[in-house]
Write the structure tokens for this entry.
Amino acid sequence: KQEVTQIPAALSVPEGENLVLNCSFTDSAIYNLQWFRQDPGKGLTSLLLIQSSQREQTSGRLNASLDKSSGRSTLYIAASQPGDSATYLCAVGPVSGYSTLTFGKGTMLLVSP
Amino acid sequence: NAGVTQTPKFQVLKTGQSMTLQCAQDMNHNSMYWYRQDPGMGLRLIYYSASEGTTDKGEVPNGYNVSRLNKREFSLRLESAAPSQTSVYFCASTRGGAEETQYFGPGTRLLVL
């Protein structure tokens, strides 16, 4: 059974810092990996989706990398801002299409002004 | 476009009562999902529907039933609510399968007393 772990569980940084969030998974037979953002009391918003054949994806100040062989992904946030404060979740997608995503429990990020 | 909508936003039930959570999407997506999110447990899939007219169990289906009413709507029913079903429920949809970007609704907070 696929298991997804996110470290750290919580992170507090001052504004302007670059930071890295980590995600690891136990079964490397994945189709893709997605990073989501969740604001308190809200639903999840997709940030980046990396296909298994890709090494990284970038969107603005966000960069996500994927190393399938080692079962790891990182989400790099450059020049963090207070508006980046949220919980970040990673989820790995199945090899077969109509099955479930497996989610990590998330990293709660607080960026202080 | 509204994306994925869920009703109600919040509900309090007594043990043994029944209720239906409603979900609708206006993106012409084929697949729809119901998740529950609990502290320390992450998101877990309850049921999903790969296409209109089909439904399948996820990781935690016990105590729930679903109906894919049409391509737009996917409802989740609790026949006899239990305190263990106190949770936040999210509906999501994808254009194709679970390997694609998932779009989430804002969630329904359910408290069972």
